[in-house]
Amino acid sequence: MKTKSQVILKIHLIISVTTVVPVAIIYGFFPDLEFELFPKTLDEHNFYKAIMGLYLASSIVWLLGIIKSSYLKIALISNIAFMLGLGFGRLISLFIDGTPTSGYLFGTFAELLLGFYGIGIINSKYYKKH
């Protein structure tokens, strides 16, 4: 990325990849390391590994969008859906289930911010020039 407009177009994808990949690894292999997640059954371990796979696959799409301009639109759209899906799901949980740990509260804010940033980018002059 060389220009200001490229940074504006892709910074949230870079942030997403650099945060989602480590979280995916933690969910898949060390869910109790940073989060209050303690899988006990094989099905629970399988569930977290599946989530890890979804997170890693999404990150690959975003990485392609960062590297190749022909993948930028799908990377932006998938990032918006991923982030807003997580963010709104967490908001629903916040209202129905109560307040989670601070890591999940921060995650809710960050996911909503990144999702709305993506919407702003798709509707911006920077994307239209791209």
What does this structure look like?
Keywords: Membrane, Transmembrane, Transmembrane helix. The chain crosses the membrane at residues 7-30, 50-67, 74-96, 102-122. InterPro entries: DUF4345. Pfam families: DUF4345 (PF14248). Helices cover 83% and strands 0% of the residues. The protein is an all-alpha fold and 130 residues long. The longest helix has 26 residues, at 4-29. It starts with a helix and ends with a helix. The mean pLDDT is 93.
Judging from the principal axes of the Cα atoms, what is the shape? globular
Task: Summarize the amount of helix as a percent range.
Answer: over 70%
Task: Give the end-to-end Cα distance, rounded to a whole number of Å.
Answer: 13 Å
Q: Strand content of the residues, in percent?
A: under 5%
Radius of gyration: 16 Å
Number of contiguous helices: 6
Organism: Winogradskyella haliclonae
Keywords: Membrane, Transmembrane, Transmembrane helix
Protein name: DUF4345 domain-containing protein
Transmembrane segments: 7-30, 50-67, 74-96, 102-122
